[in-house]
């Protein structure tokens, strides 16, 4: 794979407001999730606080970011046109309203409303699946990134169906006549969501992003490692989820081994790309380095735990001591790093690319504040480290309050890091974008669709290359 694919066509991208609106809403979910996590450490969050925390971060921040990123880059990678810009707008409304209502119900105990908001959330995600799926159907043959994206769309359909069933189960005994229990459905739902939707999308994107932005090629052992991940990881996701749904430990154990092997393969490919980079370190690449290390460490901890008990609800994402390594380290830092390039890139293409060669213009990496980027990296690394240490139990030897204190401080420092990160990207949009954040979120009546400012310059292909 070339460092920058020759067929990347930025003229195929949707209007600027479509992905940016997704990213800004996702940042809101990120800050809300981080706040809930920090407050939950002192026990002041009512209702189902853990479910709220996880859904705000994974379904809110990560998945809404994925919706915006795939809507933006599937047409770019594949050299085609997005099936429908209108559906891309509607999908965000559906997911935002559905998830917000879902979270409020979990916090207040208004469970009777959960199925309704769950259905709205499902509708939003299904609009996305249909829109991007129709876009991909017109592309042949699929490369490794497109295959991962297609698999992730399939996993998302299953996740939302199981999620809606779980929401209905709060008010009706829907599993009474099924050959499964609420617990096994919950385990399968979580497995397909984190590993099937989120990590499959991330791994597919990294094959493009890690080569493009390190200016290096896959070579040597990278090709067989890619095969291990591309084949083994999705099979592992299906097998682990099926084993947990059916209560079959052998099927689950096989899936766990395939899944962790695929994760290790992806981590090694990413680390090799970073080690052979031909460019300077950027905020994107530094966060990818943290993610690669977190993937390897998580796999080392998860493999023996899952071999011993792949169906244990306490080991849903590996051992309890590795939960933050997976969600915060392996997933979070990839999303953080990617957004540090994607948001400035979208702004730069629409605002400055047509001026290149005619006047002095800033480069993409000049749009954000380097000092804020360094500060949020330090804060988030320290915060994650404290949260991981608190989970491992190694602090118990210091005293009974050491682990809870580390969790509280780690959550607060992480919240600070996320706030700095959000402020940096919001600043990029405010200073350099053609649309303010307020207008982006609440467009005036009559301008609910793309604006004229969203037109992509004719020479963006030259600027991109």
Automatic annotation (TrEMBL):
The chain crosses the membrane at residues 23-44, 56-78, 90-113, 119-137, 149-170, 190-210, 253-275, 287-308, 328-349, 377-399, 405-426. InterPro entries: Cyt_c_oxase-like_su1_sf. It comes from the Archaea. The keyword Iron-sulfur does not apply. Keywords: Membrane, Transmembrane, Transmembrane helix. The keyword Phosphoprotein does not apply. This is Cytochrome C and Quinol oxidase polypeptide I. It comes from Halobellus clavatus.
